[in-house]
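Milestone 3.1: sequence recovery, worked example.
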């Protein structure tokens, strides 16, 4: 049974990951890390884990992971901090699933331009499989390192990737309006994310500057060979979790709501975690699940696609477990359906 370590275990995505892995019959969590010097037990950070996981938090120490026989690491660290530790881990033959953006983009220049830091492991950028199984499954199976996607990109690539590939929609304009719950910003307090700032309020942010825009553009191109240029506007919504993306697409000549619907229904017919639904979906219908629900509507000549995911599950930890299952050769749905 794979022995698993979780880095950055005091954060939100790590909490969800632990809850999923506790239900995984083929994974044993043996190490959880934090930078804090007196972090105590994991359940002190996440009270939901009391009586379920009795592990002390410890500083990251590669030697200790090797002594424990760890063969899979989930890195729930922020960008740059993640790649800094991943390189030596991979060199030891330990499988890694990286939650950060460090290995998602095609090239180092784009990463450094958008993230404003020097990449700590530039040699691997562009060659790491992007962990979205529905579009890149063959690359993920058996891979030693996988870049888990960003939450907004997952909610966009799943509906739009097949439509661009089959040339049913134009590459521009492609207007994406996304709403996210506050957990999307992580657990560290930031002024704009305080309860008083977010509750009963909604605002757009990062217009033209959000780091997920280049990820969406590059991965749409990697998958469909089409150079799309998206107009991406995220909004912070007063909810704990969930993403709703509304995507306005210009149909190509001859395509219609029905051809788009047929394409997505065919493409996802055998996929366990993507559901094509009749009416525009609500975030609550996928809360704490690994589903992405997608609907297709039509308005004023545009195809309007709506998709919902739970940012912490299909947008992060559920997807990571799906990737883990593929990397290890387990049933892809293990620990993800009850
Ligand atoms: N939240 C989401 O919806 C979401 C979705 C997809 C992907 N992601 C990505 O997943 C990763 C984790 O996100 P999260 O929301 O779980 O974040 P989080 O709640 O802020 O947790 C990250 C943890 O990493 C540790 N950490 C922070 N800065 C660090 C540094 N410079 N060096 C080492 N450790 C550091 C912290 O633990 P200690 O203080 O205990 O060390 C923190 O609890 C990020 O890369 C994020 O971009 C998040």
């Amino acid at each position: 049974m794979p022995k698993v370590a979780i880095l950055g275990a005091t954060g939100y995505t790590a909490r969800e990951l632990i809850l999923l892995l506790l239900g995984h019959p083929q994974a044993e969590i043996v190490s959880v890390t934090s930078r804090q010097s007196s972090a105590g037990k994991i359940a002190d950070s996440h009270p939901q884990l009391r009586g379920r996981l009795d592990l002390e938090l410890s500083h990251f120490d590669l030697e200790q992971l090797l002594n424990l026989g760890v063969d899979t690491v989930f890195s729930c660290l922020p960008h740059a901090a993640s790649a800094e530790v991943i390189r030596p881990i991979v060199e030891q033959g330990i499988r890694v699933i990286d939650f950060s953006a460090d290995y998602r983009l095609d090239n180092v220049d784009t990463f450094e331009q958008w993230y404003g830091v020097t990449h700590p492991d530039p040699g691997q950028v562009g060659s790491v499989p992007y962990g979205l199984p529905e579009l890149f499954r063959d690359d993920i199976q058996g891979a030693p390192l996988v870049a888990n996607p960003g939450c907004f990109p997952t909610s966009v690539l799943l509906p739009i990737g097949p439509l661009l590939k089959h040339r049913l929609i134009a590459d521009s304009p492609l207007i994406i309006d996304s709403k996210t719950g506050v957990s999307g910003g992580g657990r560290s307090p930031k002024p704009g994310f305080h309860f008083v700032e977010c509750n009963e309020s909604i605002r757009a942010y990062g217009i033209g500057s959000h780091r997920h825009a280049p990820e969406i553009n590059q991965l749409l191109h990697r998958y469909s060979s089409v150079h799309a240029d998206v107009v991406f506007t995220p909004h912070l919504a007063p909810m704990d979790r969930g993403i709703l993306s509304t995507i306005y697409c210009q149909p190509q000549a001859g395509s219609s709501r029905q051809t788009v619907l047929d394409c997505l229904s065919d493409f996802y017919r055998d996929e366990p975690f993507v559901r094509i639904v009749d009416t525009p979906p609500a975030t609550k219908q996928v809360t704490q699940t690994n589903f992405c629900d997608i609907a297709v509507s039509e308005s004023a000549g545009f195809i309007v696609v709506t998709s919902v995911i739970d940012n912490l599950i299909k947008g992060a930890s559920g997807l990571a477990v799906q990737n883990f299952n593929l990397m290890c050769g387990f049933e892809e749905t293990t620990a993800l359906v009850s």
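Residues 8, 10-14, 34-36, 39, 76-79, 81, 99-100, 150-151, 183-184, 186-188, 311-312, 315-316 surround NAP (CB under 6 Å). Residues 313-328 form the longest helix (16 residues).
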